Amino acid sequence: MGVYQRDGRWMVYYTDVNGSRRDKSFGRGDNAYAEALAFDQEKKSASKQSRGEVSSSVSIESEQPVQSEDVPVNTSPFEIIFKDLADKYIEHLEVSGRTETNTKKLKKMIENQFNPLIGDKVVNEMTYVDDMVPFIKIFQNTPGKSGKPRSQLTVNRYGDYVNAIFNFGVAMGLTKVNPMRGRRKSKEKPREIQLTVEDIKRIMECAESHIRWAMEVCFNLGTRPGESELLALKWEHIDFEKSVARIYASKTKTYRIVPISAKLLEKMRSRMAESTSGYVVDYRGERIGMIRKGFRGACQRANINYPVRMYDLRHLFATTMLSKGADLAAVSKLLGHSMISTTTSHYYHCLEGEKERAVSLLPELV
After folding, report:
1. Buried b / exposed e across 45-58, counting CB within 10 Å, b at 16+?
2. Fewer CB atoms inside 10 Å of the end CB: C or N, the chain?
3. Under DSSP, is residue 173 helix (H, G, I), strand (E, B) or coil?
4. Neighbouring-strand partners of residue 247
5. Residue 215 reports pLDDT greater than 70
6. How far apart are the C-alpha atoms of 363 and 359, rounded to whole Å?
7. Residue 43 falls inside a structural domain
């Protein structure tokens, strides 16, 4: 029995009741890893019980002498409170290769959102009905920083993070139960992408120079916006001889090669000659950490009256190529997806008329 990775997915191998090997997939990411650890621990415990083995913790506890009141008693590991368990989970992420940016964001989320509500509660005494249902309801019924109601996507993500922390506690023997067990995530309403190429041009006309350049690079290379890909792209990742960009995806821990058009490559030559930061996208010679605010301002000046994100440029990068007949597998590779099914589920359903076009290819039988 054990935990391992296959194509970026966390897997657990174990032996079933017939003695045959079985492999179970838990998906990708830290939440999947924590679930895999918990499942592996569960299978190992079941295997020990089936062989009649008694855990060391039980035997030690039974041999403990009665202590007098003036002798300090060691705190049981199962009395850990959520705040301390979350700290241990963050430390685990830090030594497991999680990016510093993502770790800081999660740590801030725990401190500001989770700890004020459940930070001082003993995890092993918490239940789904009494503790986690009210916890989830608070986020459903209270607005976020923007003053607007939180989306179900955000509420589900909060629940996933807390679930991962509890799974980690069970897997590491710090808690006995996961209070989130029994939770059923509410179905998320698919986000409607309304951004068009024409609107991108309108936004770029109203954007500052560095935002305009960031949009152009993001759309032409299909990068994930932000520090994970777009703002982490350096000139050393651009091969001017082969006209390609080597993009590292911190999400999947892989590199992908994306061809660069002749026009964009020429602009990159000019930009690099003036750059002093070493990064493809910068501001006044310094690396940029975030462009969300500048992008939002450009959208407002362009009178874009529907929700739009920088990530929508990556979406449009994919759907534009697919609508023009590009090979699905090629687009999937350009996006950095490890499986074509990911591209299909996220982008292909947005293409109007594809089912009708497919049916029209059928021949007449009569």
Report:
1. eeeeeeeeeeeeee
2. C
3. coil
4. 256
5. yes
6. 9
7. no
Helix axes 152-171, 30-50, angle to 10 degrees: 40
> CA-CA distance, 134 to 139, in Å (whole number)?
9
Our count of domains for the chain comes to 2
- Examine the domain organization and report whether 346 and 201 are in the same domain: yes
**Do 127 and 213 have their domain in common?**
no
- Cα dihedral angle (151, 153, 155, 156), rounded to 10 degrees? 160
The reply to whether 238 and 329 lie within a common domain is yes
Q: Are residues 334 and 220 in the same domain?
A: yes
Q: Are 1 and 47 in contact (CB under 8 A)?
A: yes
d(CA 360, CA 278): 51
Domain of residue 142 covers 78-171
8 A C-beta contact, residue 275 and residue 195: no
Mean pLDDT over 214-235 rounds to: 93
Neighbouring C-alpha atoms within 13 Å toward the C-beta of 107: 15
Burial classification of residue 117, based on how many CB atoms lie within 10 Å of its CB (0-12 exposed, 13-18 middle, 19 or more buried): middle
Residues 85 and 180 sit within 8 Å (Cβ to Cβ): no
For residues 87 and 134, membership in a common domain is answered with yes
DSSP 128: I
Averaged pLDDT, 10-30? 77
8 in Cβ contact with 338 (< 8 Å)? yes
9: in domain: no
The pTM of this model reads: 0.63
pLDDT class of 142 with cuts at 50, 70, 90: confident
**Claim to verify: residue 83 and residue 158 sit in the same structural domain:** yes
Share of the chain above pLDDT 90, in %: 48
Instruction: Evaluate whether 230 touches 215 at the Cβ level (below 8 Å).
Output: no
* Mean pLDDT in residue range 201-227: 94
CATH number for the domain harbouring residue 152? 1.10.150.130
Same domain, 133 and 201: no
Per-residue pLDDT band for 269 (boundaries 50, 70, 90) equals very high
Residue 177 covered by a domain = no
Of the candidates 269, 293, 258, the one whose C-alpha atom is nearest the C-alpha of residue 283 is: 293
161 phi/psi in degrees, rounded to 5 = -65, -45
Answer whether residue 153 is part of any domain.
yes
